[in-house]
Amino acid sequence: MIKKIIAVWINLVMLFGFIVIVDVVTDITPQVKAASTLYVGGVGSGNYTSIQWAIDNATSGDTVFVYNGTYYENVVVNKTINLAGENKDTTIIDGKESGDVVTITVDWVNVSLFTITNGSSGIYISSSSNCDISDNIVNSNNNDGISLYLLSDHNDIRFNTIEHNENGIMLSESNHNLISDNYIIDNDGDGIYLFFNSNSNNIIFNIIENHNNSGVKILESDNNYVTQNFDINNNDYGVYLWDAHKNDISMNANIHNNTYGVYLESSNNNTILLWNNVHNNNYGIYLVSSNDNNITENTATSNDQSGIYLQNCCRNNITGNNASDNTDGIYLMSSNNNTITDNTVISNTHDGILVHTSDDNNITSNRASNNGAGINLIYSSRNNIKNNTASGDNHGLILHDSSCTNITYNSMIENGITIEGSGLKYWNTHDIDTSNTVNGKPVYYWKNQTGGLVPSDAGQVILANCSNIKVENLQITNVSSGIELGFSSNNDIRYNNLSDNFLCGIYLELSHKNNITSNNIFPNNHYGICLRFASENNIANNTSLNNYYGVYLNGFGPLYGIDNLIINNNLSFNEYGICLDEARQNNITDNYLYSNNQHGIYLIGSILNNISENIISSNNLYGIYLWVSLLNNIFHNNLIDNVNQAYDDENDNHWDKGYPYGGNYWSDYSGVDNFKGPNQDIHGSDGMGDTLYIIDADSQDNYPLMQPYKPLEDYIILKQGWNLISLPFIQVEQDLTRVLGSIDSWYDTLQWYNPTNLPKPWKHHKVSKPFGNDLFELNESMGFWVHITQPGDTIFLFNGTQPSVNQSITLFPGWNMVGYPSLSNRNRTTALNNIIFGQDVDAIWTFNATTQTWKEIGPTDDFELGRGYWVHSKVTKVWDVPL
Q1: Among 497, 567, 559, 491, which Cα is nearest to 528's?
Q2: Cβ–Cβ < 8 Å for 295, 317
Q3: Which of 32, 179, 238, 399 could in theory staple to 261 by disulfide, Cβ–Cβ 3.0 to 4.6 A?
Q4: Parallel, antiparallel, or unpaired: how do β-strands 362-364 and 214-219 relate?
Q5: Residue 525 has pLDDT above 60, yes or no
Q6: Percentage helix, strand, coil, to 5, in the chain?
Q7: Does the N-terminal peptide bond of residue 803 adopt cis geometry, omega within 30 degrees of 0?
Q8: Considering just the CA atoms, what is the radius of gyration of the chain in Å?
Q9: All structural domains of the chain
């Protein structure tokens, strides 16, 4: 009796309740009043034992109430009735894996409070309208959970749990239906599938998750509303439209964790509008070959790829969206004549707005911040970029192989404009005026100009097809690239301070014969100085510190990236000091490369370069690293205390200049110098080790230097005949034959004047004299005569150690024959240091062996390393020779 009362109450609620239906769905009120209630199951007398038996005995308007239990049958509802279960969890209709579980073939049928399972389709509605399917569990059916076919219109599908079917809800040629407040989960195919002329349906307030295909799929169906759904997640496609037009997708609270949040293909005039929250998908909103759609005021954030992506799309309006925290915020691929305006793109890993192979788009009044690039154009033409703001992006605007871009009134903060392109038109066809600013200062973009001085208030400088321009004394900081040159030659870039720029301090592309001198470039995130396909440039006297690359030179083939001179630069504390990438025939000389985090000098696929006279010290991985690089000449470098001195994966590079010029100084070389000559088999030292310095199994330095190489300081040129010389290095080993080992057999006589050994001050050493010699040792305090027998030039390589403190030489009254043990040349006054000319000494002379003439040292003449001097002293005094 109690169960019957409950059943009657449910029946009354169903009959006299009302339904509020939004938008396109017509208000539905049951038109047939139940005349009576038929009971199935339970214990009452006269109750039916099967649902179908009760339906067969019902008349239109009746209610069939089904008590708890499992009913193994396939039910056909062919009468306008209310079919109600006692409890949806325990009132089960099982279709026995054969046919549809519940089939509805008439209008105005209500089905509620059942678990409907184990059939082909759970509920199949065929050509029936105004039915109400509510508060059921529909699961584990082989095809669709609920199917509406062939003009099944104005039906309500509400408050159902639909799971583990092939598709959750399927509509075909069915219109004006309401699908609301359902929990649709874990179906194999699609959650809700509208197919072929299923129009003007309203999908609202649902939770749709965990489908292999789509949460909501709309194919060849128009004017549908997908709105205010609570959650569409963990599907392949959240919402999928194909050949579907004039649909409205709006105000969906959470479309997330799908491969595609919202996907449109070949679908036009749709509105993706207002407060869709599309987040944490692979792609947020994705359009392919779809035109004239409005994508307005959505949140498309934290997607793995793009927030909004268009491919082969035209005339779409993308306005007022927040596309942030994605890989790319808004991405156009092969899409033309679109409008992108008033969007916010923040903290995207790559680009805020990326336009690839897309022309004639308007990109206006967008706000970009903290992206890889605010706006990036690749292979795109005739786009209009206006009134955008870009702050904190690595690049404000990139133009890569793009032409004819109109760029006006953009405000860039801590970034700027970057142009890249292998053709002239990619550099000199843009319209970029000074209404564009970087950090409040104008952008100077000059194209096709000869001569001129860039104004001192420049926030950024770009020279396109320019020559003889002077860019000097600028202070440029917090820009993408401070100074950019493309297809420009014979320009002077000097005395500029370029710091805290993201890409480059100075960037040259296909630009030749420019002078880049005396600039301070540090720190910049990537390149201090970057040369791409640039030749015959002079990179000199720059300080480039704390960059990823101090200097980066990228070549291509035999014509580009050649004959550049990189000389006398300080390239320290970078990741790499100098990197040559596929570059050839360049000269890298006299640079200081200290404490770079990886390599001092790094060559990749580079050939025929000369690397000489560099100091390469304390780099944290390799001093010099050669990878797939051939026929490079590497000599007279000082490799000191690098974690690994060198690496060479080939066997065709030359790590020395041959004999007697020698190779490189290696601070970890442990060999000795007892022999000399090309084969190091003649007794006597020559400043080169007697054994090879092994780099790897097939690379070695044949003549490793025993002491650090210093240009013009570790050797002098001797002429045939008498030479007055000295030793600038400290002579730990003072044996005459060892000190002069590098010229052994090329001299025959030495003489030195000792003022303390009067009346016989001259000391002699004759190589051919077997007895009677009285000069056996030489040191750094002495000047001495050496007589060279070999015609032409003879290289005298110094042995010893560079002085680290001032050296002392005692001067005695009268003539003294002295050396000059120092590190640098100095004029007479500075060199004499504590000696006062005129008071302590009154005459200083030297001898020029080249001209065979004497020269008196005047006040402006220099004391030179390696020369010997006659000094006439008036008193006994110790000369403190300055370093």
Answers
A1: 497
A2: yes
A3: 238
A4: unpaired
A5: yes
A6: 5, 45, 50
A7: no
A8: 44
A9: 1-235 (2.160.20.10), 259-415 (2.160.20.10), 548-711 (no CATH), 715-881 (no CATH)
List the structure tokens of 565.
């001179």
C-alpha distance from residue 716 to each of 165, 223, 777, 795, 865 (Å): 92, 92, 20, 6, 9
Give DSSP secondary structure letters for 707-718.
Answer: S---TTTSEEEE
CA dist 375 and 395 (Å) reads 8
- Higher pLDDT: 17 or 392? It is 392
Model confidence pLDDT, tens digit, residues 369-384: 999 999 999 999 999 9
∠ CA 242-246-251 to the nearest 5 degrees?
95
CA dist., res. 872 & res. 314, Å (int): 93
Q: Are 421 and 400 within 8 A, CB to CB?
A: yes
d(CA 182, CA 164): 14
| Mean pLDDT of the 518-538 span | 94
- Let me know: does 544 contact 569? Beta carbons within 8 Å: yes
Pairing of strands 747-753, 762-766: antiparallel
What is residue 645's predicted lDDT score, i.e. its pLDDT? 98
State the average pLDDT for the chain.
93
pLDDT tens digit string along 672-687? 999 988 899 988 888 9
Query: What would the mean pLDDT of 292-311 be, rounded to a whole number?
Result: 97
Place of tokens 């006589």: 749
DSSP code, position 440: T
Helix (H, G, I), strand (E, B) or coil at 749: strand
- CB count in 10 Å sphere of residue 212: 12
Confirm if 748 and 789 have CB atoms less than 8 A apart. Answer: yes
Note the pLDDT of residue 711.
Answer: 57
Those residues whose C-beta lies under 8 Å from the C-beta of residue 189, and which sit 6 or more positions away, are 166, 167, 211, 212, 213
Q: 0.85 exceeded by the pTM?
A: no
How many degrees, rounded to 5, is the angle at CA 709 between CA 707 and CA 714? 85
Mean pLDDT computed over 728-751: 88
Of 138-152, 674-688, 788-802, which gets the smallest average pLDDT?
Answer: 788-802
Q: What is the model's pLDDT at position 27?
A: 42
Contact call for residues 607 and 584 (beta carbons, < 8 A): yes
Cα distance between residue 294 and residue 297, in whole Å: 10
- The 10 Å CB-count burial string (b at 16+, else e) for 272-300 is bbbebbbbbbbbbbbbbbbbebbbbbbbb
SS3 assignment, position 415: coil
The total number of residues shown for the chain amounts to: 883
Please tell me the distance from the alpha carbon of residue 111 to that of residue 3, in angstroms, as a whole number. Answer: 19
Going by the DSSP 8-state scheme, the letter that residue 828 receives in this structure is: H
First and final C-alpha spacing in the chain: 116
Q: Please report where in the chains the tokens 């499992």 appear, as a residue.
A: 70
pLDDT of 203 above 80: yes
d(CA 795, CA 798): 9
CB 502 within 8 A of CB 476: no
β partners of residue 93: 71, 116
The beta-strand segments (E) located in 12-136 are 37-40, 63-66, 69-72, 75-77, 82-85, 91-94, 102-104, 110-112, 115-117, 123-126, 132-134
Q: Can you tell me the distance from the alpha carbon of 346 to that of 264, in angstroms, rounded to the nearest whole number?
A: 24
DSSP helix/strand/coil, 2: helix
Helix (H) or strand (E) holding 613: none
697 CB neighbour count, 10 Å cutoff = 8
Confidence band for 795, pLDDT divided at 50, 70 and 90: confident
CA distances from 53 to 56, 57, 242 (A): 5, 6, 44
Quote the CA–CA distance of 742 and 189 in Å, as a whole number: 86
- CA-nearest of 173, 187, 179, 184 to 219 is 173
Contacting residues for 566 by C-beta, under 8 A, at least 6 apart:
539, 540, 551, 553, 578, 586, 587, 588, 589, 591
